[in-house]
Amino acid sequence: MFPEYRELITQLKGHDHHFTRLFDKHNAMDQTIKNMEAGIEAGSRFQIEQLKKEKLLLKDELYEILRKASA
After folding, report:
1. Taking burial as the number of CB atoms within 10 A of a residue's CB, which of 7, 53, 68, 69 is the most buried?
2. 55, 29 in Cβ contact below 8 A?
3. Domains: count for the chain
């Protein structure tokens, strides 16, 4: 996610607890979605779609933080 901000992500994860929490939550949601789609975890199509929407909102929030931090 956001390869152009790889170094900044590393810096923020070491100093910004809010960013780290959001980043980790995004990754956890991504893994949950993959597990549900693969049938490893139970989840309906509706639940998967809801998780994808929440994950996208987190990604937007992370991008906004990265954009501001890079300015």
Report:
1. 69
2. yes
3. 1
pLDDT digits (tens, 9 = 90+) for 28-50: 999 999 999 999 999 999 999 99
Three-class DSSP labels, the chain = CCHHHHHHHHHHHHHCHHHHHHHHHHHHHHHHHHHHHHCCCCCCHHHHHHHHHHHHHHHHHHHHHHHHHHC
Q: How many CB atoms lie within 10 A of CB 18?
A: 10
Vertex 54 angle, CA 60 and 26, to 5°: 70
Q: What domain range is 57 assigned to?
A: 3-70
pTM over 0.85: yes
